[in-house]
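Lab meeting, item 3. Inverse folding demo.
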């Protein structure tokens, strides 16, 4: 384990590939519109939004996972969420559709006293590593914190 604080960033290659694919669909949608059919409007608009999101995720410090002695901070598209170690019981991996995600299991005492409505949450990304490895790393840091 690395000395705290440690920061993980999302894989850039994935966002570059998705941005290129989105750009292709935007171009195809625009060419359909220019051909006289308005059916290209939806793909051009939808994939234009996707392209914007993928480009924002390529900007430095727009997305990351920062782990400290007090807890961890997730940042996605410049919006941060800090979760202290004492409200987390552990981390696991769950398959949702075709994607494996790292699940955050919250302490029941915290759920009862907060606006949180669920016993679990999930990371928005696996930060360039397999989901199982990220879950193991997070469980190790949780155990190291002693909370």
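The presenter then showed the designed sequence:
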């Amino acid at each position: 384990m690395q000395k705290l604080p440690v920061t993980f960033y999302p894989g850039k290659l994935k966002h570059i590939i998705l941005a290129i694919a989105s750009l292709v669909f935007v171009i195809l949608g625009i060419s359909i519109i220019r051909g006289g059919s308005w059916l290209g409007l939806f793909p051009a608009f939808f994939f234009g939004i996707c392209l914007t999101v993928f480009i924002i995720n390529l900007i430095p410090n727009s997305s990351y996972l920062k782990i400290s002695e007090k807890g961890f901070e997730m940042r996605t598209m410049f919006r941060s969420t800090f979760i202290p170690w004492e409200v987390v019981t552990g981390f696991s991996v769950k398959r949702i559709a075709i994607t494996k995600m790292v699940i955050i299991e919250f302490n029941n005492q915290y759920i009862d006293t907060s606006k949180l409505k669920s016993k679990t949450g999930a990371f928005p990304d696996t930060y360039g590593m397999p989901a199982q490895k990220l879950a193991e790393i997070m469980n190790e840091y949780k155990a190291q914190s002693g909370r």
